[in-house]
Fold these 4 entries.
Entry 1:
Amino acid sequence: MRANRETQESDRFFQDRFRATRLVDEASLLACAAYVDLNLIRAAMAETLEQSKRPSDKGFLAMQLVDYLNLLDWTARQLVPGKRVKIGTRCGG
């Protein structure tokens, strides 16, 4: 595989880059959904949550949409050492 040659890898290209994590409860499911939904904004694929096609729109979260959007808005503003902040003053529209 060309990617393996370029990175001088001899095995599967993504072997050490990704791993699976079991979502065992509502809290882990919510954290995963928030991570995925906020990545769309961080990657500049959408300017607001309302403009993005969120996986959470599928109805699998046990909470009201407005509560989830408020949680995402709060989460997006939390400062994490070593992470760049890309979310504006309000991630919702």
Entry 2:
Amino acid sequence: MSWLQGQFIDIIEWIDNTNDTIAYRFERHNNEIKQGAKLIVRPGQQAVFVNEGQVADEFTAGTYELFTRNLPILSTLKGWKYGFESPFKAEVYFFSTRIFTNLKWGTANPIAIRDAEFGPVRIRAFGTYGIRVVNPKKLLESAIGTDGLFQVNEIDDHLRNLIVPSVTSWIAGSGIALLDFAANYRAMGDRACEGIRTDLDSLGIEITQLTIENISLPPAVEEALDKRSSMGILGNMGQYTQYQTANAIENAAKRPGGGNSAMDMGMGLAMGQQMANAMQTPVTPAPPSPAQWYIARNGEKLGPFTLEQLQQQAISPQTQVWQNGMSGWQPASTVPSLQAILLTAPPPPPMPQGQWYIAQNGEKLGPFTPEQLQQQGISLQTQVWRNGMDDWQLAATVPELSELFADTPVPPPLASVAPEPQTQAEWYIFRSGDATGPFTLEQLREQGISPRTNLRREGETEWTRARDIQDSALQSLLASLS
């Protein structure tokens, strides 16, 4: 009896000495688990009991004594209606839930993308990723099966087959320029992670990170980029010729005894002469492009202009100007390079004289110069207007016309000035829910309007109290009625 009891398992545990084991089945040789056996699940592990192919109870990190109360699913599967039957048989799988890092991925073959600058280009990409088990039951059912030792290398091929298409698909559709790839490695990795999370979730695995370490180009493209960089550093074609000549001489010198020495000597002399000519003959620089100026006038941008053309535009010190390199529009007076133009700029042309209009008998007459206004025999009560005024005004209220009435007595206060009668019927009245009209100003007087009466003009849609309407003739009428 003691021999049989010794065969029963008292402690169930897994000490993992590897770095790549995902799942391990607790092995025993025809041994059974007895009631009260100790289950030890270490940090970073989970244990799963399996009964005849069916997943039963799961245990997280901790130490457990196995009884019916902590094996409810297994008890149901076994049909233990009246308590724990000891001993019993069950498979125990341990899962490592730590993060497996530094797993490699890469493109097996070059992938073709279309770059806006270089056209169709074939690239390769590689990097690392990390995973961890988040649902042991899903992983056991979908990937492990009856495997007693499940390691990373048994699933990494499948994971790479998910990662590579996700990365390449995002790169090809991102529109990121080839030369900007390095600055976007992190964003590319994050987007690729999002693309495969759903696929990995069905396996019970989570991808913790995906890093793109490098995206490599074909040797021919790399060589072209290197040459372009060299030309950019050297600055112009003359210096690039010197650079290429020096490289050719160096390569010829490295050939051990190959070729014709006389020919090499002649070639070397020719190259040397070419270098001398390139260094002695200065390259004529391209003429600088004239400064391109823009001006702002009446809300529009005009230009570009050279300095000579800018002078012809008769700009003033207040004119807003701009050219490439300036942070914003500035008055011309604040730009040092324009001071000479401002000093010689002609004065602005005088305002046109014929600019006044008068209202008589409901009609607009004009334009008139101030002298012509005087000939028209206007009075202090004549309604006048010119460009720049908000509305018609009495001539008595316009300072520019004061000289025309130098011999005229000072007019009475504005409130007592009788407005010119208007013969045009353009006013409507809103009273008691009805609109009536149209009326002239004289007819409004007869209607007995007050400052609170709602009025509107012909063509307007909104009603406004008479006292709030900006019309000098109407306000004069209201003042005479008060």
Entry 3:
Amino acid sequence: MKKTLKKIPKFFTIFALLLSIISTSLITNVNAVSQAGNTVNFTWGEEIYYPKWLGNWSTKMCYIDGNLAYCLEASKDTPPANASAYYVISNNEALLKVLYYGYGGPEDVFRGDTVTSDKEKYLYTHIMASYAYSGDMYGNNSWEYLESIGVGLKARWDQIQSLPIPTNTLTFNNSNDLTVSAYFDSNEKIQRTENITLNTKSDASITLPLQDNVTLHNITKGTSTTSGNATVNGGDTFYLSAPLTVTENYSSDWLTANNLLKYAPLVIQGYANYQ
């Protein structure tokens, strides 16, 4: 009588939870900002005067914890240096895009522009940020007015708003909740999962806890880790294996991502007539 190896089904369940640090493109880290009772201190840099054809206006380069920031209500006065203000996180997608793709942002669309000066890039981003946040385009001006005097800033605004909303996601095989079944590998005489790819940016990583006798094989790196903790970077492809004697289901439980930021505008609320 021919003996048949009966494979006991085994399930590897990976749950991915993105525990992100909220970062801001105004541009500072909320965790650092919140130390002083929900207030921040900001300092001013160089004053930037609008070109004469834009009117008798000016703004100042603003820094929060040394990071570049923008005034969001262009027609109001600039607050005094070293002042503090309460802040809120604004769920404003248009503003988020301006700060993310504008001058000084992570995906600065001005980066390849060798004609426009850095001061002008800052000024244009300031105007777009103010418009996105409050509709205030310094003195109730409009896109039509800017175009009438030869300023094509509306095209840059449209470009930025057409770009995707900045997000940093983390998935396994493009799934937030991946469940895979192990199969019998007749060559290695083990049970293993299909190949799994961590979909996120390459400098982000997760630490995957492994139960006893479960091995993570990192195909990308050519390494393997048995039991304990295994680190997987964004873009890595791996699979899990175990001896046939292991029959318990495996679940990673919640995972924490490292070096993965979630971007959100940080709006510093002014007071009185200050922006």
Entry 4:
Amino acid sequence: MFLIWKGGFQLGEILKRMFRNSNEEPQTNPLSVLRQAIHGVTPGIAVKARRVGGSTHQVPIEIGSTQGKALAIRWLLAASRKRPGRNMAFKLSSELVDAAKGSGDAIRKREETHRMAEANRAFAHFR
């Protein structure tokens, strides 16, 4: 959770406004939306570059829950920064709602990572 701690007061204000924006939609609990978004974006497997015999292979590796959640938070923040919008709180709340529903750039990034791991399954024995 170090990714969220860094930023201090300004980050606290962004999160407070984001929860307020999420709360405007009827029958949504902002914390459950946040949990669903992080859970939906968290990857179970990733690829890592390994140099074997003069060539570099993308080797699929299984990642733990802590590292997966850190990646998910990083992807959510990056996707929300890319979004067009008024301010970071609005962009982040929009991305979280989209991720909780199963769409958005962060979900696309997770699917792309899983596709890469599946495509390079033949190199799994290089772990």
